[in-house]
Amino acid sequence: MGDSDSKIRKTNAAPRRSLKRRLFQLWFRVSRPLTMGARAIVTDEKERVLLVRHTYLPGWTFPGGGVERHETAEECIRHELEEEAGIILTARPELFALYSNRAVFPGDHVALYLVAPGTYERHAWTPNREIAEARFFAPDALPQDITPGAARRLREVREGAQPDPEW
Length: 167
Description:
alpha+beta
């Protein structure tokens, strides 16, 4: 009887641990909200960089957006590139760095991917409600109103500098 009692206790303990873990995870999500975004530096065969200009924000920046629930950062960047610039990835993008973007929101983070020539196809794209323009710029002819974060990221990539943890 002692042996069967211990088996019963063990089987009853598992649901309790699971419930405790679920409650802790719920508390953690509520008490420490986190948001995640993904952006990409896409370059072409002439070493030009793709930038987009939003309809609702000033300046030029990299294509990208917020990672949705049940979506990976890579899945996010894949669909954002297609929606914002007609870029269809044919290979996995390279994760360059992960940044804190607490100036926008205390728990915000941005994953930055690198997309090299030969790892994507360009499809027809037209401006839409979100993106007014999407085009490639030579490194020495970047627009005057490139966002400060995008300018810093380009310097990090081009100079091989250690990424700053802040966007």
